[in-house]
Amino acid sequence: MKKDILYILMLMMTAVGLSSCNEDNNTPDEYPDWKARNEEYFNKIYKEAVSDAKTNPNVKVIRNWSLPETHNNPEDFIVVKVLKKGTGTQLPLYTDTAYIHYQGRLIPSTSYPKGMIFDQTWITEEFNPNTNTPKKFAVSGVVSGFTTALQYMRAGDRWMIYIPYQLGYGAKNNNKIPAYSTLVFDVTLAGSYHAGRTSKETKAKAHNIQYLNQN
Questions:
Q1: Cα 125 from Cα 117, distance rounded (Å)
Q2: How far, in Å, CA of 210 to CA of 159, rounded?
Q3: pLDDT, tens only, 42-76
Q4: Cα–Cα distance, 161 to 184 (Å, whole number)
Q5: Do 146 and 185 touch, CB atoms closer than 8 A?
Q6: What is the mean pLDDT of residues 101-130?
Q7: Which of 23, 24, 118, 204 has its CA 20 to 30 Å from the CA of residue 191?
Q8: Where is the PPIase FKBP-type domain (predicted)?
């Protein structure tokens, strides 16, 4: 009798183990071959942009702000597609503060055909400057590729920015963002602030930011 009970328990444990294995096998890998796929994705975007930028002023290939001109590999650049041109006249400096609307995505993956959204300032499904408030960042306080883009934007510009992982979070995980991730940002620059402006200039800048949010 004891042998029968022991045998039944062993069968039950085996069944549970097999069930667990099946569940694991049926769980899709969200990021298979992630490094290789991200490199392939960005290299394709980069090559197309290099060609398109020759005739299309709304496509830009920009070398990372901290690199000399001798650096010419794809991962030394960000790719920009201009969605809307702003009317601002000043470019944010590395030491400035920027006010931005943004949505950040990864490249398409198993469960996210458009790429998983890992962060955004929008409170609506689609970007609406009338209902969304920009977030304040130090231009120097974001990943290198983002810092590069901000220093070329004018208030009111809306850009789609593609950042290779080397200019993003590199080979380390960062919260929801896996290592080796190309970052894709939809960014609108609402305005920027230069330290040392007079109070009159500061008030004018604040007014401009408010105006951009309402139009």
A1: 11
A2: 20
A3: 999 999 999 999 999 999 999 999 999 999 999 99
A4: 6
A5: yes
A6: 93
A7: 118
A8: 95-193
CB 99, CB 88: distance < 8 Å: no
Report the sign of the C-alpha dihedral through residues 82, 71, 150, 201, in that order.
negative
Q: How many CB atoms lie within 10 A of CB 124?
A: 9
Q: What does the DSSP assignment read for the chain?
A: -HHHHHHHHHHHHHHHHHHHHHHHHHS--SSTTHHHHHHHHHHHHHHHHHHHTTT-TTEEEEE-TTS-TT--SGGGEEEEEEEE------PPPTTSEEEEEEEEE----SS-TT--EEEES-SSSS--TTT--PEEEEGGGS-HHHHHHHTT--TT-EEEEEE-GGGTTTTS-BTTB-TT--EEEEEEEEEEE-TT--HHHHHHHHHHHHHHHH-
For 32-191, which CATH class?
alpha beta
pTM: 0.80
